[in-house]
């Protein structure tokens, strides 16, 4: 039963990558990014006001750090993913996203003094090679000649932003309940993304895009983080992180069924390596 928690989170996040792609043409990236966190904030608020007030003495001196975490982990990461979805495939996004644990490991070695093992080094080399295969569409010569697809580049930056977020989370060790910290970061995302939402063209809520917003809010923004937190408590951080390796495979399978995306040989090679 304890393995159900990380699997649930991974399936939801893989599905959310496909949701990013389904949102293209149905709603503008800045819209779904803002609506997602706004709705999550509204739903969380009745349950989180008392805990926030109770922990305010611990929150106040850490407001700057909480703001940085909210910008990196909620606003930048997910917003770039919505924009990336307009320019690349969900399969590519899932494979690139699987680099996150290794990016986090590299930053932990530099900033936290974590030791680099031979296994971690081998994993890093293989994962980097796998992503190179994917972003080059199996042709490194074409990559050198034309550069990285803009959508893939956005997804790489988004993944890097979340890796920095994860590293800072470990480094700062904020003494706050996980749900309180999540709620405060959601509020940061709402504030930061509001100007982009105002400046963006808008479709508005429709029967086509409302289910996408609800999935992104209720499942990807609320249920998945809660399931992941439970997984960390029950299995520990190291064992839980291993489930992240399933993300590209599950994303590719969902994308093949829902989006009819064709799996090329370079997807299979890149997915195995990462």
Give an overview in words.
Helices cover 78% and strands 0% of the residues. It has one domain. Helix 1 runs antiparallel to helix 11 (210-235). It is an all-alpha fold and 274 residues long. It has helices at 4-22, 29-54, 56-59, 63-84, 90-97, 100-111, 118-135, 140-146, 150-172, 178-199, 210-235, 237-242, 247-258, 265-273. The longest helix is centred in the first third of the chain and has 26 residues, at 29-54.
Distinct helical segment count: 14
The total strand number stands at 0
**Helicity, in percent?**
over 70%
* First-residue to last-residue Cα separation: 27 Å
Mean pLDDT: 84
Binned strand content: under 5%
N-to-C order of helices and strands: HHHHHHHHHHHHHH
Radius of gyration: 18 Å
Q: Any idea how many domains?
A: 1
The description of the largest β-sheet is: none
> In terms of per-residue confidence, which ranges show pLDDT below 50 for 5 or more consecutive residues?
none
Structural class: mainly alpha
Shape: globular
Itemize the secondary structure elements and their pairings.
Layout: H1 4-22, H2 29-54, H3 56-59, H4 63-84, H5 90-97, H6 100-111, H7 118-135, H8 140-146, H9 150-172, H10 178-199, H11 210-235, H12 237-242, H13 247-258, H14 265-273
Key terms:
single chain, 14 helices, 274 residues, 78% helix
How do you describe this structure in short?
With 274 residues, the protein is mostly helical. It is built from 14 helices and no strands. It has helices at residues 4-22, 29-54, 56-59, 63-84, 90-97, 100-111, 118-135, 140-146, 150-172, 178-199, 210-235, 237-242, 247-258, 265-273.
């Amino acid at each position: 039963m304890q393995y159900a928690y990380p699997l649930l989170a991974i399936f939801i996040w893989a599905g959310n990558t496909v949701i990013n792609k389904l949102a293209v043409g149905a709603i503008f990236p800045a819209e779904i990014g803002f609506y997602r966190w706004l709705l999550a904030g509204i739903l969380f608020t009745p349950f989180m006001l008392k805990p926030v007030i109770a922990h305010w003495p611990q929150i106040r001196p850490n407001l700057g750090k909480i703001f940085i975490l909210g910008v990196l982990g909620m606003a930048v990461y997910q917003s770039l993913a919505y924009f990336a979805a307009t320019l690349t495939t969900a399969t590519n996004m899932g494979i690139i996203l699987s680099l996150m644990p290794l990016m986090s490991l590299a930053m932990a070695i530099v900033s936290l003094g974590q030791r680099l093992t031979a296994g971690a080094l081998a994993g890093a080399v293989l994962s980097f090679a796998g992503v190179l295969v994917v972003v080059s569409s199996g042709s490194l010569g074409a990559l050198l000649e034309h550069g990285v697809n803009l959508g893939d580049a956005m997804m790489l930056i988004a993944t890097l932003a979340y890796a920095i977020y994860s590293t800072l989370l470990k480094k700062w060790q904020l003494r706050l309940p996980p749900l309180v910290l999540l709620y405060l970061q959601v509020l940061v995302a709402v504030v930061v993304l509001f100007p982009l939402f105002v400046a963006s063209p808008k479709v508005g809520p429709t029967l086509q895009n409302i289910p996408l917003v609800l999935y992104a809010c209720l499942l990807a923004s609320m249920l998945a983080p809660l399931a992941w937190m439970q997984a960390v408590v029950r299995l520990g951080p190291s064992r839980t992180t291993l489930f992240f390796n399933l993300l590209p495979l599950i994303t590719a399978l969902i994308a093949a069924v829902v989006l009819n995306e064709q799996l090329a040989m370079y997807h299979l090679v890149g997915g195995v390596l990462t």
